[in-house]
Structures are given as C-alpha cells and as structure tokens.
Amino acid sequence: MTREVSLPLWVAAVVAALAAWAALDRFLIPSARWFLRRRVNRVLEELNTRLRIRIPPFKLTKRQVLIDRLLYDPQVQDAVEAYARENDMPRAAVMDRVRLSAREIVPAFNAYLYFRLGYRAGRAVARSLFRVRLGYVDEELLAAIPENATVVFWINHRSNMDYILVGYLAAERTALSYAVGEWARIGPLQTLIRSMGAYFVRRRSNDPLYRRVLERYVAMATAGGVTQAIFPEGGLTRDGGLREAKLGLVDYMLKNFDPSGERDVVFIPVGINYDRVFEDRTQLRLAAEPENLPRAGEVLWKSLGFMLRNARLVLTNRWHRFGYACVNFGRPVSARAYLRERGLDLRALPREARFAEIGVFAREMMRKLGDVIPAVPVALVATALLRDPERAMSELELKGEVFALSRQLDEIGAHVYIPRGDQDYAIAVGIRMLTLRRLVAVADGLYRVNAADVPLLRYYANSIRHILE
C-alpha cells in the first residue's frame, strides 16, 4: 500500500543538503585525503634522496600532536600552575589561554605545498622582480655539517622579500621554518604561511604565559632538528644598516642546549642585499617618526599606486627589473664548538649570566653576518656619490670613484658582487637604477645627487657602511 507524502520545499532542500554532506564526508573527503597523502609521500621520498639537510620527523608530525605535546610540556604546566595561583584564576581558564597560544604558534607544515607550489611561486616572483644571484657559498663547509645537526640560518632583514628569496635559494638544501610577525596573520594568508612551516610570533607581547609557550615550542623544534631561519634584528632595518641582535629566540634555542649531546646546533650567517628595497621610503619615515605607523589603507593605496605605475611601464615597454638581489652564505658556526672553546654550559648559568653570554655570541654572529653581506651595484654607486654629495661628476669621474671603492673593499676581504664579471657594466647598472628613480639627476653629462633624496641614497650606502668602518 502506497501513499503520497508531501513535504515543504525547504524540508526537501535540507534533506538533500544533508545527503550531499554525508556522501561528501563518507566518500569524497576520504578519497581526497588519500590522494593528497599519496602525493605528499611521493614528494617526501624524492626530497629525502635529494636534500642535503633532511626533513626531520618533528616537522612532519601532525599539528594536533605537536599542540598536545606543547600543552602538556612540564615547563608549560608549571607556568600554568604558577599563573593560576598568582592571579587567582581557575586552572581550566588558564589552560584555555595557553591552548589558544599553542594553536597560534604551531605550524602545519605541508611538504607538497612547500616544494611544489611554494618553491615555484617563490622562484617566479623573485626572478620576475630581480636578477637573483647566489654570490658566495662554501659548499665544502656546508657539506661537512653533521646530518643530525639542527641548522639555523642567521639572516639580515632588509625587505619582506627576504622570506621569498632565502626560501627559494635554500630549497635545494632544506625546508626552512621562519618566525613570522603579526603582519602575516591576515585571513587565508596565515593558513598558507603556516602550511609553509612558519610559526607566528607576537614580538611585543609581555604575556609570561605566551612567552613560555613560544619558548618551549622553539626549544622543542630545535631539539627535534627543525631547520630554522631567523632575522635576529627583530624587524626590517630602518636606516639600511645592520641593527643589534635581539636575544629572545637565540636564548630559547640555546638555554637548554647540551654541548655533550648527540645533536649540535649550527648557525649559518646569510647576507642579503638589493639594488632596490620596496619598503625603503616607509622605513626611513618610521626611523624619523617611529610612533607614526602607516595605516592599512595608506599602505594599500601606495602599494596599488606602485603596481599601477609599473604596469604602465610594462605596457609601454619601458619596465626594467629592480636590479640585482644577491645572497651570500657564510661559514657555519657550531654552538657545541663555540661553547666548548669557552668552557661554557648555558644550562648551568643564572638568567643574567646566560643572557650576557648569549649577547656575546649574538654580537660575534652579527659580525660574521656583516662580513658576508654583498656589496651590490646601487650600494657601491650610492656610497661613491655620498662622499661628496654636492659635487657634480662626469660618468668617467663617477666610475673612477666606484672603481677605487671596489678595490678598497676587495683589499679588506669584502664580497663585492660584480655582475657578468664586468665592473663597467656593474657601475652602469647602479647608475641606471638611481637615475630611473630620479635620486640622481643628469644634466650636461654631469651626475648630481638630488638634495632631497640624500637620506634615501644613504639608506643604500648604509648596507655596506659597516664593512668600510
């Protein structure tokens, strides 16, 4: 016996939606996960035969497992107990705060996204904007780093392009894990950055709970052999020169380091320089008025204007790439060897004494970093012009000044990047970049610095000032 049953349209729509969701949940999603997992495993098998620094198991551990390990780390639990007691708060409420911090910090590394999509996108962006060059690298010393060592790339911070540039150039050797500031926590962007292995850092946070969670994650990642890239200056250079190192992340990495343990921590200085830094005017403005931070709308408007101007140049066939971007890799520094030479064990020192020793180590690393920052064409020409900013020079005179400067840098062992091995061409590139930006005026065959743009020229000259000093 059959009867017709009438249902309202909205009920039929709900039933259909639930049926579609059940089919998706039971059949399509598991199939998609299996397909993606298979692709990721293939990538990992290929990478572990090709990469010089292998991806450690810690980096491949599921994100939720890492979050749980972090939450129930003994030192984190001690901090929770102390905070709850001192602030008269329920322990569950404090754990909720810690859980939020852990979920914010811990990345979700995806090898397929990193090496298949991220690497290709990074290479395309970097090479479309700059003539990217690997200047100096000692392959023998890098190959001599023990396989089980934790490698930390110690990088100067000139531009937000640094993340893309170093990640692209290092991808033949390893997968990097960056500490990323709060600027990157924007909607879907933070999900993408987290999947590339980066972890977020609130640089100005004084919350002791957050600091303890961050400390324990960095310590766990270091002990787990995760290759990391840090910008010890803590932010972009404001005047173009090197800044002093911040000690927080370095302390987190080394405070529990055992010089007699199985795993060494090896720091590699990485020097970056550009013929054009997109953030140069913004950073000079912040140096002059540190409290006057640009608003999001202002940044967006200026970025849009910059892109439209360059699009117009492309359409009129007058666009040039923004000069050279050069990266040098310096000599590795073993934390084990460094501490043994000085008879130090940081675990045994009280906090003030430990920070003092880490400060000494950081200054030594900044000196080594400064030694490998490349002198690129714009930096050379800007330095030569600023020796007498009011002087008008012919092209021959200007080239003579830059030749003399290059010889001076060579004599003190600096890394001068000469594209194509042709000094005359290198100087021409530097002059062209500065005249195109109207930082240097040309009249009657003479080059003269525009007085209003002296600070901008000094920004580029400052990138090699420490070498000359």
How would you describe this protein?
The termini are far apart. The protein is α/β, with parallel strands linked by helices. The chain is globular and about 95 Å long. Strands 1, 2, 3, 4, 5, 6, 7 and 8 form an 8-stranded mixed β-sheet that branches. Strands 9-11-10 form a 3-stranded antiparallel β-sheet. Strand 3, helix 9 and strand 4 form a beta-alpha-beta unit.
Based on helices, strands and strand pairing, what is the structural class? alpha/beta
Shape: globular
The Rg value, from CA coordinates, equals 26 Å
Q: What is the strand tally?
A: 11
Number of helices: 20
The CATH topology of the largest domain comes to Glycerol-3-phosphate (1)-acyltransferase
Largest sheet: 8 strands, mixed
User: What proportion of the residues form beta strands (DSSP E)?
Assistant: 5-15%
What structural keywords apply?
alpha/beta; Glycerol-3-phosphate (1)-acyltransferase; Arc Repressor Mutant, subunit A; 20 helices; 11 strands; 55% helix; 10% strand
Short summary:
The protein has 20 helices and eleven strands.
List the topology elements.
Layout: H1 9-50, H2 57-60, H3 63-71, H4 74-86, H5 91-105, H6 111-129, E1 131-134, H7 139-143, E2 150-155, H8 161-170, E3 177-180, H9 187-195, E4 199-200, H10 208-223, E5 228-230, H11 248-254, E6 265-274, H12 280-288, H13 296-315, E7 324-329, E8 333-334, H14 335-341, H15 351-372, H16 377-386, E9 393-394, H17 395-411, H18 423-436, E10 440-443, E11 446-449, H19 454-461, H20 465-468
Parallel strand pairs: 1-7, 2-5, 2-6, 3-4, 3-5
Antiparallel strand pairs: 6-7, 6-8, 9-11, 10-11
Helix pairs in contact: 1-6, 4-5, 4-10, 5-10, 6-8, 10-11, 16-17, 16-18, 16-19
